[in-house]
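Hey everyone, long-time lurker, first post.

I ran two proteins through the pipeline my lab uses and got sequence/structure pairs for each. Pasting them in order. The first:
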Amino acid sequence: MARPGAALLLVLLLAAAAVPAAAPAAELIRSARVLAPDHVRLTLDRPIENLAPENFRFTTARAPDVPIEVRAAESLPGNALLLTVAGRVDPAGSYRVEILDPPAARSVRPAPWALLLTIVLSSALINNFVFTRYLGLCIFFGVSKKRDTAFGMGLTFSLVMILSAMFSWVLYTFVMTPLKLKFLQIIVFIGVVAFLVQALDTILKKTHRSLHQKWGVYLMLITTNCIILAVPLLNAAAESGPGESFALALGSGAGFALALFLMSCARERLELARVPKSFEGLPIAFALAGLFALAFMGFSGLNFMR
């Protein structure tokens, strides 16, 4: 004979199964997008009546308890809303928007492909390590005399940059962080770069001896290049994932290769130009680098997430 408690529990379970599940709150908001400098566009499944600013709550993903003031809400065609918030918003940032009546909420973040593309283009053009941060100048001026040498070094540098960034991310994420060894990140990252450069030098010496003799001397300079070390340190400081780490390494390597190629083309043309005696060699090279830096400053206002 079944116990009364068991029978009551069975009845409650059957009643709960018969009740239709409530629709999730986020279904009201089909999509959300941040529009610089101070707007958020929402696409709804159906229009809502209460468009008062107090009916909306907008926060950042890192500080969900600190709301950002919503100043106005404007209805747009196609069941869309345009929220105006106080202060500037970052199209590449992560936010959360909520509607109080009727209750709904949705996370606001850029598409992964758009974020990765932005990182690549930003690190290659807007934040070029050579022309905007003035890093890696020693190897930059040393191998930019000839175009073919600069091209080969740019490819090698990009390859070492990507491999070192990914190996460093794996060690930092799965070894150093669990073992509380973050204070050793500089030593570990330098060791990773040195290992990769030595391995690449050995491989080239065995497989492509002519290529190794052509610019194998400059391989050792990659180990002491501050850009190679800067990328893993930036990834570690930002707690970047594998995609962001790869994008930053790819963009930084491409930016350095672009800087080498442009500088080598200009320095080859300078060999046919009349340069004052006091400006021959490095002085005119520094002047050229300054002009390139001024040109790259024109990318500083670009925003690929608009």
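...and the second, right after it:
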Amino acid sequence: MATPRLRALDDGRKPRRKRSGHPRKPPAPLRPLHSLWRRTIDQLDIVPVALPVRDLAPALEGVVACQISDFHVDRDEDLARLEAAVVRINQQQPDLVFLTGDYFSGGPTMRRYLADFRRVLAELKPSSGVFAILGNHDHHASFTLISDALKRAGARVLANEHQRVMLNHEPLNIVGIDDLWSHRAEPARAFRGLAPSESSIVLAHNPDTALYTRHLAPGVMLSGHTHGGVVRIPFYGSPIRSLLRIGKNYYAGLNRYNEFYIYTNRGLGTFWLRIRINCRPEISRFTLTRLADSAAGVAPAPEHHVRRRRAHRLRAAG
């Protein structure tokens, strides 16, 4: 007995396509504008960064790591963008890959795309491991299901903990701090057992986590969360640049904060507003370098940022 698909073909009718996350093609007059819009949200930038790490061992200089963040896999096009990013990352032949949260926007899209998400990330091939943390949206969706998918894809999920990696016969500590907005960040717990002189790369979804981490002597912090500001106006920056309590400079790129640097990745996906202006999706390609001891010319961060609303954003870290 012929299946419905075969019967449709026998009748000369096209089979009904499976419902997809792709939008229908726009009317012909709007297609050039649609194509330009899609390029702004799909064209990946590989951003090379000499990443200064405090107390980095000389043998670790030159280690290559890649970071992607804020996938927001809510449609087929988002999954395709992630697939393209994985291919580009593997071409860089990194030692390490860091995933810094907000993989889905919520529960419904997570359930739809979780299996494909796991399949795609399993294709990452760094020589020394994939490390992941979760963001605020992931906690709203399902910490358990997303963590399990990441682990099954070969990633090491760090939730207020660290793992030591040996590279070139030297240890490098990867520290993962859970999400700040979800009231799960416990920096002291994540650093427990580490001496201030030990090299570390800290993964923290929200750059504001640095306000509660600086006293723990991080080597460098990698974040996401801001989507690079989404809209970047020449000579001004992003209209959302003042949303971070840490300061208006930390919504994108490499910025020094007291005795260490923070790098904020622009992310792969979009949320709510499906636009990007002068702010294309980003794959960060880091080459580790030792941070010079001198902090000349760098103003200390204002103390009031740390004290303000601390109890509302940070769980007790025992």
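Reply from user beta_strand_b:
Welcome! Quick read of the second one: The mean pLDDT is 82. DSSP finds nine helices and twelve strands in the chain.
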